[in-house]
Structures are given as C-alpha cells and as structure tokens.
Amino acid sequence: MLGVIEHRTGHSGVALIDGRPHTAVHTTTDESESFAEVWRVAGPKESGSHGGIAWARTADYLFGVARVPEGDRYADGTAAVYTGIFDLIGELGHLRLARTWNYVSGINTLNADGMEVYRDFCVGRAEALDARGVEPAGMPAATGIGTHGGGIACYFLAARAGERVNLENPAVLTAHRYPRQYGPRPPIFARATWLAPPGSDDGRLYVSATAGIRGHETVHHGDVARQCDVALENIAQVISAENLRRHGLRRGYTLADVDHLKVYVRHREDVRAVRRICAERFSREATVAVLHTDIARTDLLVEIEGVVA
C-alpha cells in the first residue's frame, strides 16, 4: 500500500503507519458511508516525511499527505503545504504531479478577514505557484471539496516519468481564467489528467471533481437532478474521443468506463436521488461512494470525480 485515506465521520492527523501515509477526512455525517481509499502499487517502496508531508514512493510513483491545521485563516498554511509539495517532488525526482485532492473544513464559511474559506485556500495555493514558478497550466486534475472539520487535508500523486497530459473541457472555462467574482486568486487545476508509464499505453485518466457548470457559471440553481446531469455531461465530454484527440491522445471513453467514483452531495435529502442517477449512468461494476459534505460554491449541490483505467 502506497497510501491510505479514510473518509468517515471524523478526522485524524497525518501519520506514517507501517511506512504508508495516512489521514482521515471528515467527509460524511453517516458512518454507513465511511470507507478507506487505498492506493496500491507493485514493487518495493520507501517512505519518509518532509516539512509535515508524509510520503511513500516506488521507483515510478510518489504519494504524499499533508494537513493545514484548523484556524481562522488558511492562505499562509496552504502556501506552505504546496511549496513543500513542489520542493518534495523536485527533491525526489517525481516531477509529474498527476492528481491533487484538497479537503477543506468549513469551505463556505468566512475566515477572520471576511473572505470565504475556499477563496482563502485558493489564494494560498496560487501564492505557492508564484513562489516556485509553476505555471497554472502545469497543475493537474484536482478536487477542492468541503469537510465537517479538521482544517485542510491535502494529498497528491506524482510520477517520475511517462506521459502526463492535462485536459480541459471546451464547455467549461479553464479554471485559472475564472473572472474575479470567484475570488482574488482563481482556482488552479485541469479538468482531467492522463498519466501513462514510460513506453506504455496502459494509463489512467484522473477526472477532477466535476459540477453543474457551463462556461464559468453554475446552472440549474436549486435542482440537484439537473445539476447532476450537467456534471455527468461534463465528465462525458472531457473523456470523449473528440476531446482527447484535441489534446493529442488517440483514445476515447464514455461514462461506462469511469470507476472509483466519489460523489459529493451538499444536502442529505438529495443523496437518494443522486445515488439513483449515478446508478443509471455508470457501469454496474463501478465502485461509487456517495458522501454528504459541502461544495466549493454555495449554489452547487453535487460534484463527481472518478478514474478511467
């Protein structure tokens, strides 16, 4: 095991347990929805810590976990975590950052300065990119979602070599080009990232947490079913053969190919409807976890992420 992330009704700190990075994030209010997200690899691994980041790696892949403690401001702590990530992947030689996850406590609440916590987080992440000279287009697929406590948990996957291609969706504005109405610094991530080992076509496509957005605007306010449909349409478009060809990849997928899904639902009363829609649209063999937690925009009711292998 390269790393373990627990999703449950509580949180824990970052630790190395038997040589694997571990943390728990408070992403649901119902213990029956709890599960462990386990990252497995073949071959020997080594592990360690770097500036509060617990990490493990093989010759090919690096997995790391860090946390910003709960507080009344998050930009400085987020900047420290992300500069630490950039420094670590450089030091260990796993320069192809392929996927990041950011679980943000009280994501829609206000910090001590009256700024929404998610926007506060985005400021810190952008400052880290500035400090290390990382171009926004170089940032991979990501999740930025709420939790019910515990500050901010960040974890990431990086590769030493191989093909990495960040994908955008022509129906949705590139995140780092969002207008200023969404905060002083925009969110910075790709809509999906393709990662394949050197000399192999046997890769994976990591799909960012995807919502009911067209252009840069939320659609179907207050209607979870229609927002869910648009989120699914956005996923289908970003993984389609047409879009992958646009990014130089000769392959294509449909929703039936998406697995390892995490579905985030803002309101407990909407969980059943979202489960039904996902059951109808994804493969019966797909693993689907539905979690009750807040979402980066107050008008978004559902977000969906997954992996195509």
TrEMBL record:
It comes from the Bacteria. Transmembrane segments: none annotated. The active site is at residue 303. Pfam families: FkbO_Hyg5-like_N. This is Chorismatase FkbO/Hyg5-like N-terminal domain-containing protein. Substrate binds at residues 118, 125, 178, 191. Residues 37-158 form the Chorismatase FkbO/Hyg5-like N-terminal domain. NCBIfam families: chori_FkbO_Hyg5. InterPro entries: Chori_FkbO_Hyg5, FkbO_Hyg5-like_N, RutC-like_sf.
